Amino acid sequence: MSNSTEILALRALLGDYPNTASLRNGAIRSPRFNLNFADVKVPNHAFKRVVRDMEFDVAELAIATYLTAKAHGKPLVLLPVVVRGKFQHESIVYNAERNQLAPRDLAGRRVGIRSHSVTTVAWVRGILQNDYGVDLDRVKWVTFEDAHVAEVTDPPGYERAAADKNPLTMLLEGELDAAVLTGKDLKHPKVKYLIPDPEAAAKTWYQKYGLVPINHMVTVRESLLRASPWVAEEIFRLLAESKKAAGLPPANGVDAFPLGVEANRRSLELVIKYAFQQRLIPRAYPVDELFNDVTRVLGK
């Protein structure tokens, strides 16, 4: 790998999104390495392979997973590239056939979450605590999976659902009062948003904070960057070009896929704050500490 003329073969995990499509389909490529994409349709299904097995040279990774991986010394370097960003006010719901529920009612209630440390849950809990005054320690959290990072375990008082259960089914059957859901489960006709009119709430939240919650960023194996530090800049270039090829961000629109440390600083500061409040990480890392000397200057 020390031969600069060698074309590297890099194992990669990257979802197929509008902002990554040109890179995924080969329309944009590097003359210096080939990205061999894992055959994984839903990248978060492989996040354990990223942080436990170090299977990939380049990998999309949820930001809360990266923070917990950093806390436990996993040899990954963060790139200042967002590939998934999303407002999260819609992500917590309750059963519309039961009594109406609001954030202020969550004390003592059973709330289902996929895992203690997944990013959507970290954002939802942060919003509930900081914008709606919810005492997270008074909620009865029910988890369904282990954390991506093996060393992260459910806190005392958390309940693990039976292996044959899932959050939506338990919500519909009255075994949960609310649940953090994603994708098509949010469209189920029997579920109702805990935060009324989440689109309007997200707009108000954006006006207050000026950021889109980061969901997934990109990481590179530390050993790869030690051997070939130029790889970071090249990956950054490819992802920036692929985003541009998709016409993103839209004219006069919100940029959900910021590039560079400064463009992501406020969102990173907030998710770090939330992760620390939720005891996912031992201290609130300064944003610059998430990057190394090579990745910190990308996009400047």
What does this structure look like?
The chain is an alpha/beta fold. It folds into 2 domains: 8-86 and 212-297, Periplasmic binding protein-like II (D-Maltodextrin-Binding Protein, domain 2, 3-Layer(aba) Sandwich), CATH 3.40.190; 89-209, 3-Layer(aba) Sandwich (D-Maltodextrin-Binding Protein, domain 2), CATH 3.40.190.10. It has helices at residues 21-24, 47-51, 63-71, 119-132, 167-172, 198-209, 222-227, 230-245, 261-277; strands spanning 8-13, 33-37, 58-62, 76-85, 92-95, 110-113, 140-143, 159-160, 178-180, 191-193, 214-221. The strands form 2 sheets. Strands 8-7-6-9-5-10 form a 6-stranded mixed β-sheet. Strand 1, helix 1 and strand 2 form a beta-alpha-beta unit. The mean pLDDT is 96.
What keyword list fits this structure?
300 residues; D-Maltodextrin-Binding Protein, domain 2; six-stranded mixed β-sheet; 2 domains; five-stranded mixed β-sheet; 18% strand
- List low-pLDDT spans: none
Number of helices: 9
Mean pLDDT: 96
| Intertermini distance | 27 Å
Q: Biggest β-sheet, characterized?
A: 6 strands, mixed
Q: Can you tell me the number of structural domains?
A: 2
Strand order of the largest sheet: 8-7-6-9-5-10
Structural class: alpha/beta
- Rg, alpha carbons: 20 Å
